[in-house]
Amino acid sequence: MSSNQIKVELTSAKKQKPDFANLPFGKIFTDHMFVMDYTEGKGWHDARIVPYQPLTLDPAAIVFHYGQTVFEGMKAYLTKENEVLLFRPDQNMKRLNRSNTRICIPQIDEEFALTALKQLVAVDRDWVPNVEGTSLYIRPFIIATEPYLGVAASKNYQFIIIMSPVGNYYAEGINPVKIAVEQQYVRAVKGGTGNAKTAGNYAASLAAQEVAEKSGYSQVLWLDGKENKYIEEVGSMNIFFKINGEVVTPELNGSILEGITRDSVIHLVKHWGLPIVEKRISINEIYKAYQDGLLEEAFGTGTAAVISPVGELYWNDEKLVINGGKIGEVSQKLYNTITGIQRGTVPDPFGWNVKVEDEEIILAI
Amino acid sequence: MSSNQIKVELTSAKKQKPDFANLPFGKIFTDHMFVMDYTEGKGWHDARIVPYQPLTLDPAAIVFHYGQTVFEGMKAYLTKENEVLLFRPDQNMKRLNRSNTRICIPQIDEEFALTALKQLVAVDRDWVPNVEGTSLYIRPFIIATEPYLGVAASKNYQFIIIMSPVGNYYAEGINPVKIAVEQQYVRAVKGGTGNAKTAGNYAASLAAQEVAEKSGYSQVLWLDGKENKYIEEVGSMNIFFKINGEVVTPELNGSILEGITRDSVIHLVKHWGLPIVEKRISINEIYKAYQDGLLEEAFGTGTAAVISPVGELYWNDEKLVINGGKIGEVSQKLYNTITGIQRGTVPDPFGWNVKVEDEEIILAI
Ligand SMILES: Cc1ncc(COP(=O)(O)O)c(C=O)c1O
Ligand SMILES: Cc1ncc(COP(=O)(O)O)c(C=O)c1O
Q1: Could you read off the pLDDT of B210-259 as tens digits, one per residue?
Q2: Crossing angle for the helix pair B199-214 and A89-103, nearest 10 degrees?
Q3: Residue A313 and residue A275 share a domain
Q4: Interface with A, mutate which of B66, B155, B169 (most A CBs under 10 A)
Q5: Do A200 and B200 touch (CB under 8 A)?
Q6: Is residue B344 part of a domain?
Q7: Which of A132, A263, A351, B184 is most buried, most CB within 10 Å of its CB?
């Protein structure tokens, strides 16, 4: 399929833009959305950009009952030169297809999906906010729409992309967050769906998240489901530590999400010549490093917050205050570099940025 | 709330009834559905019975992205006296609330929900099929409707009940099914959502199910997520074995669903004075019992199939044929007794049946 096979129906009633200096996260949506249908035997068809509108689904649609759905999260940024940049969007489409495999959803054409996404961004270009720290959050997702109450993969799907101009994900912004190590609930286990970006993982996380928030923690740090001992990831971020000069992060073990920010951090740290290792890390090792005064930094990585320094880790009734509760040097440098690349203010050595071209706007309208 | 607070809007165009002698499972829906809304600060409100119709939801509704949803499955049966009976519906409402707790969904008023359900069945009474082996499958479910892309419990929900006249869940009917022991994928783990009836558990199960079906097995038998050793349950059934005269079933350990059919089987077997035990059972124990010639019966229990004898268990490249691939004595007696109680043809010693009264029909219309 080529880009001109995407039908575009523009809205006749553009919404009023919100105050870009005061954006909430994920509550305001742009004027348009992308939709494409899948029908067994026919494949993906009817790609279209339409006014943002409600979905109309049979109450028996499989997504409501058996959670057959996957999603992605990515961002578009406005540069000083008024260009719109996407950060490694090809990686999101790849991961979407990996999630599809796990959840038995048919593969999408990654290249076509990216073209569609770029067209959608071009159509809603004036929704990419121009204020420091803001961006346009993009949410591609696929839902199973067949009305059937048997547990089986759906015969029909919709692939949808919606977009939301966003401010900071955490109220804290780049200020360090407090995170509680979860000791009761489990998010994912080897053989499960932890490395797929699928709804059920997040439903499973809500209860622990609520308990943590009540105690003043913004997220939980998940331990593995088998031994409740090894560090996995944070609610919607991967986790890194700097211990005695070395950057460490949990290895990809099948139950944590392969974060694109995580991968970018690993590339950059290696590029800088700093020691970095992906390995299994127990919470006890972190505690010992802390006691020995060797736990120098901790930070989460994810599209929403990019780099989120961890100022305090709560574990076993103890508060581990990291780097005096302040952002560490490597965390800060990573934040500056990645957000700089994303906004086109620092060089992009790995060719991560993808520009939304003007001709796409022309094509689309 | 009392039953007359449920607004009833009857359809002006009744659907044609399907051939009750040839019903598929979960593909045909009745004329009406029940809907009730939840709004933060206001609670549950606007209970109504309306014509069966599509749901209209914002594409950012939390259910699509974070799977915040729970459901139930139960059945209504028509007796020879033309009465409509529900089987232990109070237990389904209790379990719905337990699932709600795990998934951070507000509690429902169980008694009111049951009243609503009875009214709905009364309104669509002529959809309760009158053919041997058929019933009206009832699917209450709750979905998170708030449009918000942050991972947090929704502020708004819908509680919906839809109904489907059904035939056999398995093509096999009461004939023994073949089940494969799953050795790669995991459905649930302690601390996760395995004991809640929530969408993500089923999404997680699809891949294993597809592999099993390709090899000619109708379901998989899940092992525990921690050690991949202990028997948990089947796709949508709990599992029982009869070993050397004793009935055994996995204990409720937090990662398997507390099946209502399971509970009914335990009650009946005890009532009959047969030895029964709920305990942790490893797949190795089952294999040993099989080798020793002591594995006398195996059967799954669940609302959809009631009792489903297991004729063959596939494990470690070996086919364990149970009771010569035929239904066992206890399995058959349980099937006859439970389906007999459900249809009012054998005594109901535990008071499990709940009659849908005629006055409810009057109230409703
Ligand atoms: C569970 C989980 N882990 C990690 C991440 C970070 O991934 P990425 O860097 O690709 O945004 C996310 C979210 O995006 C997530 O949902
Ligand atoms: C995972 C799972 N286990 C067991 C059961 C059996 O429970 P019940 O007997 O209440 O139908 C079901 C379905 O109903 C189920 O979905």
Answers
A1: 999 999 999 999 999 999 999 999 989 999 999 999 999 999 999 999 99
A2: 70
A3: yes
A4: B66
A5: yes
A6: no
A7: A263
